[in-house]
Amino acid sequence: MLTLLLQEGADTLPSLAAEEEPVEKTLSLFDLLMSGGLPGQIIILVLFILLFVAIYIYFERLFAIKAASQMDSNFMNQIKDHVANGNIEAAKILCAQQNSPVSRLTAKGISRIGSPLEDINTAIENSGKLEVYRLEKNVSVLATIAGAGPMIGFLGTVIGMVLAFHQLATSSGQAEMGNLAEGIYTAMTTTVAGLIVGIVAYIGYNHLVVRTDKVVHQMEATAVDFLDMLNEPA
User: What is the pLDDT of residues 3-35, one digit of tens each?
Assistant: First the structure.
């Protein structure tokens, strides 16, 4: 009888040990972002809005620049044929059909045919500046977000550390770890979020600058071709 009781007790020990095993807790991304208290939540909300604005501007400008870079490869040859034949109206109609920065630049030059070459060049340059301004619309906002995002994140870091040290000061060095963890969470999560926003905006800004430079180069090449065409002897 005693042997049976000892055996049953030995059998129950593994089950008790299994029941006492700690359960691993998982923390979702949302819970992590919201665990920094009200100051951290406010800063995270601001950074989320900045991230949304940055992504919206990036894709809006990307599609606009992509549309502006599309041009018929035979466009300038057709313009040269129309101008050489004295068919200025047909050249203007062709430019209106293209509806791109290059075609608008060419149309501005065509409208000045008969004026001194210097005046035509000035008109094309002024029109080119307007086209570049249209291409770069709101792109500077991305640069601002790229700089402001990490700074706002670091502001959250400072606020979090201030909250943590305030807990220590008001509790005479006996603050609970849970209260300290809230301030530390605020510091860490806002820093990470700010860096993510800054990196996304910075990469988007530089990519748009490269795409814009390609379109500007295309416009300059077209302007040179057009002026060379006017300089050709009759």
Answer: 544 455 545 545 444 444 554 455 454 555 555
Domain range list for the chain: 38-62+74-231
CA distance 103 to 79: 10
* Beta carbons of 127 and 105 less than 8 angstroms apart: yes
3-state secondary structure of 114: coil
Are 165 and 199 a contacting pair, CB within 8 Å? no
From residue 151, alpha-carbon distances to 172, 188, 197, 203 in Å are 32, 13, 10, 17
Residue 54 exposed, middle or buried by CB count within 10 Å (0-12, 13-18, 19+) = buried
| CA–CA separation, 217 and 34 (whole Å) | 47
For 38-71, what is each residue's pLDDT tens digit?
667 788 889 999 999 999 999 999 998 888 888 7
Q: Residue 21 has what DSSP assignment?
A: S
> 């062709």: which residue's tokens?
94
From the list 134, 90, 124, the residue with the least C-alpha distance to 227 is 124
Contact 91, 66 (CB under 8 A): no
